[in-house]
Amino acid sequence: MRASLIQIAVDRDEPVDSRRRRAAALVREQRGSALVVLPELWTVGAFAYDSFEAEAETLDGPTRRAMAEAAADAGVWLHAGSVVERAADGRLFNTSLVFSPEGRLAGVYRKIHRFGFDKGEAVMMAAGEELVTVRLPDATLGLGTCYDLRFPELFRGLVDAGADLLVVPAGWPERRRAHWTLLARARAVENQAYVLACSTAGTHAGVEQAGHSTVVDPWGEVLAEAGAGEEILAVDLDPKRPAESREQFPALKDRRLGLAPPVVRGS
Ligand SMILES: NC(=O)CC(=O)C(=O)O
Protein backbone atom coordinates (compact mmCIF):
# COMPACT_ATOMS: atom_id res chain seq x y z
CA MET A 1 0.00 0.00 0.00
CA ARG A 2 1.81 3.09 -1.23
CA ALA A 3 1.28 6.34 0.66
CA SER A 4 2.45 9.68 -0.74
CA LEU A 5 2.78 12.74 1.46
CA ILE A 6 2.80 16.04 -0.41
CA GLN A 7 4.88 18.46 1.62
CA ILE A 8 3.79 21.53 -0.27
CA ALA A 9 5.43 24.92 0.35
CA VAL A 10 3.12 27.63 1.63
CA ASP A 11 4.63 31.00 0.88
CA ARG A 12 2.63 34.18 1.24
CA ASP A 13 3.68 35.44 -2.21
CA GLU A 14 1.86 32.66 -4.04
CA PRO A 15 -1.88 33.32 -4.51
CA VAL A 16 -4.15 30.67 -2.98
CA ASP A 17 -5.68 29.82 -6.40
CA SER A 18 -2.26 29.09 -7.81
CA ARG A 19 -1.33 26.85 -4.89
CA ARG A 20 -4.67 25.04 -5.19
CA ARG A 21 -4.00 24.31 -8.88
CA ARG A 22 -0.48 23.19 -8.04
CA ALA A 23 -1.69 20.89 -5.25
CA ALA A 24 -4.28 19.33 -7.56
CA ALA A 25 -1.60 18.70 -10.19
CA LEU A 26 0.67 17.10 -7.58
CA VAL A 27 -2.17 14.83 -6.45
CA ARG A 28 -2.81 13.76 -10.06
CA GLU A 29 0.86 12.80 -10.36
CA GLN A 30 0.42 10.27 -7.52
CA ARG A 31 -1.65 7.81 -9.60
CA GLY A 32 -0.58 4.35 -8.38
CA SER A 33 -0.51 5.38 -4.72
CA ALA A 34 -3.28 4.02 -2.51
CA LEU A 35 -3.33 7.08 -0.25
CA VAL A 36 -2.19 10.66 -0.79
CA VAL A 37 -1.91 13.20 2.04
CA LEU A 38 -1.68 17.01 2.02
CA PRO A 39 -0.84 19.18 5.06
CA GLU A 40 -2.91 21.41 7.33
CA LEU A 41 -4.28 24.69 5.92
CA TRP A 42 -2.01 24.51 2.88
CA THR A 43 -4.33 26.90 1.02
CA VAL A 44 -3.94 29.87 3.35
CA GLY A 45 -1.14 28.95 5.79
CA ALA A 46 -1.69 27.72 9.35
CA PHE A 47 -0.28 30.92 10.87
CA ALA A 48 -1.79 33.39 8.36
CA TYR A 49 -4.52 34.36 10.82
CA ASP A 50 -5.29 37.64 9.06
CA SER A 51 -6.37 35.69 5.95
CA PHE A 52 -8.63 33.15 7.66
CA GLU A 53 -11.84 35.18 7.25
CA ALA A 54 -11.20 36.05 3.60
CA GLU A 55 -10.17 32.53 2.59
CA ALA A 56 -12.81 30.63 4.59
CA GLU A 57 -14.87 28.27 2.43
CA THR A 58 -17.91 26.11 2.86
CA LEU A 59 -17.72 22.33 2.49
CA ASP A 60 -18.80 22.90 -1.11
CA GLY A 61 -16.04 25.41 -1.74
CA PRO A 62 -13.22 25.56 -4.28
CA THR A 63 -10.83 23.32 -2.37
CA ARG A 64 -13.40 20.58 -1.96
CA ARG A 65 -14.21 20.70 -5.69
CA ALA A 66 -10.58 20.77 -6.80
CA MET A 67 -9.56 17.96 -4.47
CA ALA A 68 -12.55 15.74 -5.30
CA GLU A 69 -11.67 16.00 -9.00
CA ALA A 70 -7.98 15.39 -8.39
CA ALA A 71 -8.68 12.29 -6.25
CA ALA A 72 -11.00 10.88 -8.92
CA ASP A 73 -8.57 11.65 -11.76
CA ALA A 74 -5.71 9.96 -9.91
CA GLY A 75 -7.91 7.13 -8.57
CA VAL A 76 -6.50 7.53 -5.04
CA TRP A 77 -7.77 7.93 -1.51
CA LEU A 78 -6.93 11.53 -0.71
CA HIS A 79 -6.56 13.11 2.70
CA ALA A 80 -6.67 16.65 1.33
CA GLY A 81 -5.29 18.26 4.49
CA SER A 82 -7.44 20.95 6.03
CA VAL A 83 -9.22 24.14 4.99
CA VAL A 84 -10.65 27.08 6.91
CA GLU A 85 -14.27 25.98 6.90
CA ARG A 86 -17.11 28.45 7.30
CA ALA A 87 -19.98 26.50 8.83
CA ALA A 88 -23.64 27.29 8.17
CA ASP A 89 -23.84 29.18 11.48
CA GLY A 90 -20.88 31.39 10.48
CA ARG A 91 -18.29 29.79 12.78
CA LEU A 92 -14.87 28.88 11.41
CA PHE A 93 -13.33 25.43 11.81
CA ASN A 94 -9.98 23.92 10.82
CA THR A 95 -11.50 21.08 8.82
CA SER A 96 -9.86 18.10 7.14
CA LEU A 97 -11.39 16.47 4.07
CA VAL A 98 -10.90 12.88 2.93
CA PHE A 99 -11.96 11.73 -0.56
CA SER A 100 -12.48 8.29 -2.01
CA PRO A 101 -10.89 7.28 -5.36
CA GLU A 102 -14.23 8.19 -6.97
CA GLY A 103 -14.03 11.72 -5.58
CA ARG A 104 -16.70 11.16 -2.91
CA LEU A 105 -16.27 13.11 0.35
CA ALA A 106 -15.66 10.16 2.68
CA GLY A 107 -14.57 11.92 5.86
CA VAL A 108 -14.76 15.36 7.49
CA TYR A 109 -12.79 16.07 10.65
CA ARG A 110 -12.87 19.37 12.54
CA LYS A 111 -9.66 19.91 14.54
CA ILE A 112 -10.41 19.31 18.20
CA HIS A 113 -7.44 21.03 19.88
CA ARG A 114 -6.98 24.59 18.63
CA PHE A 115 -3.53 26.11 18.72
CA GLY A 116 -2.55 29.59 19.93
CA PHE A 117 -3.54 29.70 23.63
CA ASP A 118 -5.16 33.15 23.77
CA LYS A 119 -4.76 34.17 20.13
CA GLY A 120 -4.88 32.98 16.51
CA GLU A 121 -6.68 29.74 15.79
CA ALA A 122 -7.61 29.27 19.47
CA VAL A 123 -9.82 32.36 19.44
CA MET A 124 -10.76 32.61 15.76
CA MET A 125 -11.94 29.05 15.25
CA ALA A 126 -14.44 26.79 16.95
CA ALA A 127 -13.33 23.40 18.27
CA GLY A 128 -14.41 20.14 16.69
CA GLU A 129 -16.13 17.68 18.99
CA GLU A 130 -16.01 14.38 17.13
CA LEU A 131 -13.34 11.73 16.64
CA VAL A 132 -13.28 10.59 13.02
CA THR A 133 -12.07 7.38 11.41
CA VAL A 134 -12.31 6.52 7.71
CA ARG A 135 -12.41 2.93 6.54
CA LEU A 136 -10.24 2.15 3.50
CA PRO A 137 -10.17 -1.31 1.90
CA ASP A 138 -6.92 -2.26 3.71
CA ALA A 139 -6.66 0.13 6.66
CA THR A 140 -8.63 2.40 8.93
CA LEU A 141 -7.51 6.01 9.05
CA GLY A 142 -7.64 7.90 12.35
CA LEU A 143 -7.66 11.65 11.84
CA GLY A 144 -5.86 14.30 13.86
CA THR A 145 -4.49 17.73 12.93
CA CYS A 146 -1.21 19.38 13.95
CA TYR A 147 -1.56 20.50 17.63
CA ASP A 148 -3.76 17.40 18.20
CA LEU A 149 -0.50 15.42 18.03
CA ARG A 150 0.26 16.61 21.58
CA PHE A 151 -2.85 14.91 22.99
CA PRO A 152 -2.36 11.15 23.27
CA GLU A 153 -5.89 10.48 24.49
CA LEU A 154 -7.29 11.58 21.12
CA PHE A 155 -5.22 8.99 19.26
CA ARG A 156 -6.00 6.28 21.79
CA GLY A 157 -9.66 7.03 21.19
CA LEU A 158 -9.12 6.64 17.46
CA VAL A 159 -7.33 3.33 17.98
CA ASP A 160 -10.17 2.14 20.20
CA ALA A 161 -12.46 2.97 17.27
CA GLY A 162 -10.38 0.72 14.99
CA ALA A 163 -7.74 3.05 13.52
CA ASP A 164 -4.39 1.56 12.53
CA LEU A 165 -3.10 4.36 10.31
CA LEU A 166 -3.00 7.73 12.06
CA VAL A 167 -2.88 10.66 9.64
CA VAL A 168 -1.75 14.03 10.92
CA PRO A 169 -1.61 16.98 8.51
CA ALA A 170 0.20 19.92 10.06
CA GLY A 171 1.66 23.38 9.59
CA TRP A 172 4.35 22.69 12.17
CA PRO A 173 6.86 25.49 12.88
CA GLU A 174 10.56 24.87 12.47
CA ARG A 175 11.31 26.16 15.98
CA ARG A 176 9.49 23.19 17.51
CA ARG A 177 10.67 20.56 15.02
CA ALA A 178 12.22 18.42 17.78
CA HIS A 179 8.72 17.95 19.24
CA TRP A 180 7.23 17.05 15.84
CA THR A 181 9.36 14.00 15.22
CA LEU A 182 9.30 12.87 18.83
CA LEU A 183 5.51 13.16 19.12
CA ALA A 184 4.92 11.35 15.81
CA ARG A 185 7.07 8.46 17.00
CA ALA A 186 5.42 8.43 20.44
CA ARG A 187 1.91 8.20 18.94
CA ALA A 188 3.09 5.33 16.71
CA VAL A 189 4.77 3.33 19.49
CA GLU A 190 2.06 3.71 22.12
CA ASN A 191 -0.71 2.83 19.65
CA GLN A 192 1.21 0.31 17.53
CA ALA A 193 -0.07 2.11 14.47
CA TYR A 194 1.43 3.78 11.43
CA VAL A 195 1.71 7.55 11.73
CA LEU A 196 1.71 9.66 8.59
CA ALA A 197 2.64 13.18 9.64
CA CYS A 198 2.57 15.64 6.73
CA SER A 199 3.67 19.23 7.33
CA THR A 200 4.01 22.26 5.08
CA ALA A 201 7.32 23.71 3.92
CA GLY A 202 8.05 27.39 3.26
CA THR A 203 7.49 30.52 5.34
CA HIS A 204 4.27 32.45 5.79
CA ALA A 205 3.22 35.13 8.29
CA GLY A 206 6.86 35.17 9.39
CA VAL A 207 6.74 31.55 10.57
CA GLU A 208 9.24 29.17 9.05
CA GLN A 209 7.63 25.79 8.57
CA ALA A 210 9.35 22.61 9.69
CA GLY A 211 8.77 20.44 6.65
CA HIS A 212 10.31 17.11 7.71
CA SER A 213 7.12 15.16 7.07
CA THR A 214 7.53 11.75 8.60
CA VAL A 215 6.20 8.23 8.22
CA VAL A 216 6.60 6.07 11.32
CA ASP A 217 5.82 2.35 11.51
CA PRO A 218 3.98 0.63 14.38
CA TRP A 219 7.32 -0.22 16.04
CA GLY A 220 8.29 3.46 16.13
CA GLU A 221 10.84 3.24 13.33
CA VAL A 222 10.98 6.23 11.01
CA LEU A 223 10.42 4.75 7.54
CA ALA A 224 10.97 8.03 5.72
CA GLU A 225 11.50 11.66 6.54
CA ALA A 226 11.42 14.63 4.17
CA GLY A 227 13.83 17.54 4.19
CA ALA A 228 12.89 21.16 4.76
CA GLY A 229 11.67 22.12 1.27
CA GLU A 230 8.77 21.15 -0.97
CA GLU A 231 8.92 17.40 -1.50
CA ILE A 232 6.84 14.28 -2.07
CA LEU A 233 7.52 11.49 0.38
CA ALA A 234 6.41 8.11 -1.01
CA VAL A 235 6.48 5.04 1.24
CA ASP A 236 5.21 1.46 0.95
CA LEU A 237 3.19 0.38 3.98
CA ASP A 238 2.21 -3.14 4.94
CA PRO A 239 -1.45 -2.98 6.06
CA LYS A 240 -0.99 -6.17 8.13
CA ARG A 241 1.83 -4.67 10.18
CA PRO A 242 -0.21 -2.92 12.94
CA ALA A 243 -2.19 -6.11 13.71
CA GLU A 244 0.99 -8.23 13.66
CA SER A 245 2.75 -5.78 15.94
CA ARG A 246 -0.20 -5.78 18.39
CA GLU A 247 -0.23 -9.58 18.31
CA GLN A 248 3.52 -9.99 18.88
CA PHE A 249 3.77 -7.35 21.60
CA PRO A 250 0.26 -7.13 23.07
CA ALA A 251 0.79 -4.12 25.35
CA LEU A 252 -2.56 -2.57 24.38
CA LYS A 253 -4.25 -5.55 26.03
CA ASP A 254 -2.55 -4.69 29.35
CA ARG A 255 -4.31 -1.36 29.71
CA ARG A 256 -5.90 -0.83 33.12
CA LEU A 257 -9.10 1.05 32.51
CA GLY A 258 -11.61 2.13 35.12
CA LEU A 259 -9.19 2.44 38.06
CA ALA A 260 -10.41 4.35 41.08
CA PRO A 261 -9.47 8.08 41.26
CA PRO A 262 -6.07 8.83 42.89
CA VAL A 263 -5.91 8.80 46.66
CA VAL A 264 -4.36 12.04 47.92
CA ARG A 265 -2.21 11.37 50.98
CA GLY A 266 -0.64 13.88 53.32
CA SER A 267 -1.89 17.13 54.67
N1 LIG B 1 0.42 24.91 14.88
C1 LIG B 1 -0.08 23.92 15.62
O1 LIG B 1 -1.25 23.56 15.47
C2 LIG B 1 0.74 23.22 16.63
C3 LIG B 1 2.08 23.71 17.02
O2 LIG B 1 2.64 24.64 16.44
C4 LIG B 1 2.68 23.03 18.17
O3 LIG B 1 3.84 23.31 18.50
O4 LIG B 1 2.02 22.19 18.79
UniProtKB/TrEMBL annotation:
Can the keyword tRNA-binding be found in this entry's annotation?
no
Q: Does the keyword Iron apply?
A: no
Keywords, A to Z, come to: Hydrolase
Q: Where is the CN hydrolase domain?
A: 1-239
What are the GO MF terms of this UniProt record? hydrolase activity
Family annotation (InterPro entries) = C-N_Hydrolase, C-N_Hydrolase_sf, UPF0012_CS
The domain of life for this entry's organism is Bacteria
The UniProt entry's sequence similarity note says:
Belongs to the carbon-nitrogen hydrolase superfamily. NIT1/NIT2 family.
Quote the PANTHER family the UniProt record gives: DEAMINATED GLUTATHIONE AMIDASE, NITRILASE-RELATED
Q: What is this protein called?
A: Carbon-nitrogen hydrolase
Q: Which organism is it from?
A: Streptomyces spongiicola
